[in-house]
Design goal:
Low-confidence stretches of chain A: none
Structural class of chain A: alpha/beta
Strand order of the largest sheet of chain A: 2-1-3-4-5
Number of domains of chain B: 2
CATH superfamily of the largest domain in chain B: Vaccinia Virus protein VP39
Radius of gyration of chain B: 20 Å
Strand order of the largest sheet of chain B: 6-2-1-7-8
Number of helices of chain A: 6
Largest interface: A-B, 30 and 34 residues
Shape of chain A: globular
Number of domains of chain A: 1
Mean pLDDT of chain B: 82
CATH topology of the largest domain in chain B: Rossmann fold
Domain Response regulatory (chain A): 2-119
Pfam family, one (chain A): Response_reg
CATH architecture of the largest domain in chain B: 3-Layer(aba) Sandwich
Number of helices of chain B: 12
GO biological process, one term (chain A): phosphorelay signal transduction system
CATH topology of chain A: Rossmann fold
Largest sheet of chain B: 5 strands, parallel
CATH class of chain A: Alpha Beta
Order of helices and strands of chain B: HHHHHEHEHEHHEEHEEHEEEH
Oligomer: heterodimer
Order of helices and strands of chain A: EHEHEHEHEHH
CATH architecture of chain A: 3-Layer(aba) Sandwich
Largest sheet of chain A: 5 strands, parallel
Protein name (chain A): Response regulator
Modified residues (4-aspartylphosphate) (chain A): 52
Strand content of chain A: 15-25%
Strand content of chain B: 15-25%
CATH class of the largest domain in chain B: Alpha Beta
Chain lengths: 127, 316
């Protein structure tokens, strides 16, 4: 399984990527939505994208909308990972096409719980 | 800080007598991690705290130790698969068997801080036909966790643990820094203190959740608990256990059925196959621990991608 971690904070990218790698994922990283789209357009294949909301150049919601507009990326699971915690924002993200929503701060167990919900826990983790 | 063998033996004996939970050698770390906060609060080291417990034996201190040792981690829709079984197979089967009318009753045993019964309540609200009503009786040994459960409010960190986003927005609202369950969810659940070794809540129940509880007990105690469950479970009802638990080799009154990548247990029709009732080894306090997985909101009410994700989850 391969995940794309999109966050303008290098520290947060490391935390999320480190947790995913601990669960058996390979990870790619992007600094904002446009950077992530460039990688996908260049042929990067990922199963999961973990997406911050507030980023320069292209924010998380715009990225989700752009991915959902391209049928070639339909199989990518999209999970917002953000400090935005209002009920209305979660509704907006889901309506735009995000599959899940994790609010910062979170524990590594919370990421695993969400992946479990999404059916994305790597096989070796289920043993 | 390491606990002395004498202190561990005392605590293990106290917990066994009060809750029937077995703390076997090797569980010293558990006692240390659970009791250290109590000892610190009393301004003592661990062994001095246990000495005080032994010599003064205050009921409040003993109750605090039992609480600390029996309260366990919990999360929403814990493990996912049992909720997929409930919603994919068992609820539709029971709704059909009742002709789509009447009242469905659920017992969530050892419900801890409430995530399990509330996860069940959300599932029932989303899945049951409008012609049916439902009720969830949620029990736990610990008054402390029941008080938390009754509040219906959870921190952001707690909500992050397993709550599907689509369920969150449908059944919870922000309340300051916390999240609060909707009145509709809360009204389905009633909480009460109960020791699993005592007579069960008044049945009959259509569904019993007894998840991640039996693992704490010895064989005679497990059998006694399952006998009590069988007594209040409808003949066509269903029992859901934790992933590491089974009735096999414990009680012959259940049939294991594999549904939705999970095992559920239904009462065997032939009552004669039931194991004989076993007297309680030593009641008094049984506690805690259970909880939920992750589950699927009603796909019809979700944006397409969310429904897609949930169906993937359920298909695991």
């Amino acid at each position: 399984m391969r995940a794309l971690v999109i966050d303008d904070s290098r520290t947060m990218r490391r935390i999320v990527a480190g947790t995913l790698e601990g669960l058996g994922f390979e990870t790619l990283q992007a600094e904002h939505g446009r950077d992530a789209l460039d990688q996908l357009e260049a042929g990067a294949e990922v199963d999961l994208a973990c997406i911050d909301w507030n980023m320069p150049v292209m924010d998380g919601l715009e990225f989700v909308t752009a991915v959902r507009a391209n049928p070639a990326w339909r199989a990518i699971t999209l999970m917002m990972v953000t400090t935005e915690a209002e009920h209305s924002q979660i509704v907006r993200a889901l309506a735009a096409g995000a599959h899940e929503y994790l609010i910062k701060p979170f524990t590594p167990d919370a990421i695993r719980d969400k992946l479990d919900l999404l059916g994305l826990v790597p096989v070796e983790e289920l043993a | 800080m390491s606990i002395s063998p004498e202190s561990f033996a005392f605590v293990a004996d106290l917990v066994r007598r009060r809750s029937a939970i077995q703390l076997t050698p090797g569980k010293e770390y558990l006692v240390e991690s659970r009791l250290l906060p109590l000892a610190r609060a009393a301004g003592l080291d661990l062994d001095a705290y246990v000495v005080r417990l032994r010599t003064q034996g205050a009921a409040a201190d003993q109750a605090a130790v039992i609480e600390a040792m029996t309260t366990n981690e919990t999360s929403w829709f814990r493990d996912g698969a049992p909720y997929a079984a409930l919603r994919g197979t068992e609820l539709p089967r029971l709704v059909a068997a009742r002709g789509g009318t009447g009242r469905l009753r659920v017992w969530s045993a050892a419900c801890s801080t409430g995530q399990e019964p509330y996860s069940i309540a959300m599932s029932l609200l989303d899945d049951l036909p409008a012609t049916m009503t439902s009720e969830i009786v949620a029990t736990d040994l610990s008054e402390q966790v029941l008080e938390r459960a009754r509040s219906g409010r959870y921190s952001q960190l707690e909500v992050n643990r397993g709550m599907p986003a689509a369920m969150l927005v449908r059944h919870m609202a922000r309340a300051g820094t916390e999240w609060e369950l909707s009145a509709a969810v809360r009204h389905l659940v009633s909480f009460r203190a109960h020791n699993l070794l005592d007579a069960p809540p008044a049945g009959p129940f259509d569904i019993v959740f007894l998840r991640n509880v039996l693992i704490y007990f010895d064989l005679p105690t497990k059998r006694a608990i399952l006998e009590r469950v069988l007594r209040v479970l409808r003949p066509d009802g269903v029992l859901l256990l934790g992933a590491a638990e089974s009735t096999l080799g414990v009680h012959e009154g259940f049939e294991r059925v594999t549904v939705e990548r999970s095992s559920v247990y239904r009462p065997l029709a032939a009552r004669g196959l039931r194991a004989p009732t076993v007297p309680s080894p030593r009641p008094a306090g049984l506690a805690h621990a259970s909880v939920p997985p992750t589950v699927p909101p009603s796909p019809s009410s979700l944006p397409v991608p969310a429904a897609h994700a949930l169906s993937r989850g359920a298909a695991r």
